[in-house]
């Protein structure tokens, strides 16, 4: 057998092709390695940016309204009929919007409103005596329209000729259900004697008591003001023309009937440290257990129909009255009030936590304004270092 001779030119051609293929593979590897290096560098840069952003956020301090004196109340210096804390409200709006989920508005109340670590406050919790918010969500829900306020809020004014106090939002519930839950009687008595609420002011040392009242099964709140010296209860309803009015009358009537009995059984009328009840015209010729007269106040600003602003209006009514002001017939804008209240609470809570005092009574008492006041010149918006 004979074999065909192999051409040297064919061998050289194959060698060149193999060399070229190897070079191409090496180039591809180099390119891939370069791409990996770039990706790693980009990731490192992203991590650095995130770290810098976190550091910047830590360095940022919330703008709060500061003054030389500790505030006795969150709203001190900002009367409801005066100029609002616009700069503070702007700072709050910016703070509350940081860290939202992308589809924040669609989330339910029970869902987290913020990204991880974006809902934390500067402190473990803030102390409002009646509530202890730990997350930004508490402030967010309070500031939003069509959100019902149900938290209890208490207030007192004890160092002036006119004195008032408030009950928590459960006082009317205690009255309604005391026959079913006997323990509620102790809570009613404790409230009257000033033991059961943060304000701690006994009723016999006051002129009026502000009571938030819920209309059972109607999801609606009104303000009832017990005028002790005149033996009547004034009702301020932001939906006075609605169908809830009849049921409301029955609700308040029960309060007006039960209340005098508890006052008498707990020797309220024997407490004459500040007022001699027996010489007052409204008490003469009447049995001490006689029901209080109920007066439904008309001509006051009303909430929009189909809104959940009753809690906002109750707070506004109470603030107007406790400052000795007449409730306007219109012009109460619920969303502005929501932002005002939540901004002032937020500011007060931050200042209180940073100052390190835990009791509202540690600060000086607020002098009672004789007329409408605007923002004090001593109050300035500043950055706390």
TrEMBL record:
Keywords: Hydrolase, Protease. Gene3D superfamilies: Adenoviral Proteinase, Chain A. The keyword Protease applies. Residues 1-58 are annotated as: Disordered. The keyword Hydrolase applies. InterPro entries: Papain-like_cys_pep_sf (IPR038765), Peptidase_C48_C (IPR003653). It comes from the Eukaryota. Signal peptide: none annotated. Residues 1-12 have a biased composition (Polar residues). Residues 62-321 form the Ubiquitin-like protease family profile domain. Residues 24-56 have a biased composition (Basic and acidic residues). PANTHER family: CYSTEINE PROTEINASES SUPERFAMILY PROTEIN-RELATED-RELATED, ULP1 PROTEASE FAMILY, C-TERMINAL CATALYTIC DOMAIN CONTAINING PROTEIN. Belongs to the peptidase C48 family. This is Ubiquitin-like protease family profile domain-containing protein.
């Amino acid at each position: 057998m004979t074999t065909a001779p192999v051409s040297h030119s064919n061998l050289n051609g194959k060698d060149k092709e193999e060399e070229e293929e190897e070079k191409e593979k090496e180039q591809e590897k180099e390119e891939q390695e370069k791409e990996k290096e770039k990706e790693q560098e980009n990731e490192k840069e992203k991590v650095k940016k995130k770290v810098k952003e976190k550091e910047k956020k830590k360095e940022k301090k919330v703008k709060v309204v500061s003054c030389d004196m500790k505030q006795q109340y969150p709203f001190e210096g900002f009367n409801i009929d005066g100029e609002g804390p616009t700069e503070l409200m702007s700072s709050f709006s910016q703070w509350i919007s940081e860290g939202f989920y992308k589809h924040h508005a669609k989330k339910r109340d029970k869902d987290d409103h913020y990204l991880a670590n974006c809902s934390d406050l500067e402190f473990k919790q803030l102390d409002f005596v009646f509530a202890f918010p730990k997350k930004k969500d508490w402030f967010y829900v309070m500031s939003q329209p069509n959100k019902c306020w149900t938290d209890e809020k208490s207030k007192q004014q004890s160092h002036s000729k006119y004195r008032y106090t408030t009950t928590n939002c459960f006082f009317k519930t205690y009255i309604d259900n005391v026959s079913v839950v006997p323990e509620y009687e102790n809570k009613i008595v404790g409230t009257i004697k000033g033991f059961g609420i943060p304000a701690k002011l006994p009723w016999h040392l006051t002129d009026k008591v502000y009571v938030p009242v819920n209309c059972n099964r109607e999801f609606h709140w009104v303000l009832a003001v017990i005028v002790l010296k005149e033996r009547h209860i004034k009702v301020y309803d932001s939906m006075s023309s609605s169908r809830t009015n009849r049921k409301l009358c029955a609700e308040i009537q029960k309060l007006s009937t039960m209340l005098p009995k508890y006052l008498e059984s707990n020797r309220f009328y024997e407490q004459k440290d500040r007022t001699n009840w027996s010489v007052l015209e409204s008490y003469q010729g009447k049995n001490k257990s006689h029901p209080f007269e109920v007066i439904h106040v008309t001509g006051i600003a009303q909430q929009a129909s189909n809104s959940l602003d009753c809690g906002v209006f109750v707070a506004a009514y109470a603030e107007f009255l406790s400052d000795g002001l007449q409730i306007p017939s219109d012009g109460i804008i619920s969303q502005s009030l929501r932002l005002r209240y939540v901004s002032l609470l937020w500011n007060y809570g931050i200042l209180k936590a940073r100052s390190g005092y835990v009791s509202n009574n540690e600060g000086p008492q607020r002098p009672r304004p004789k007329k409408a006041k605007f923002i004090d010149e001593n109050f300035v918006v500043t950055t706390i270092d």
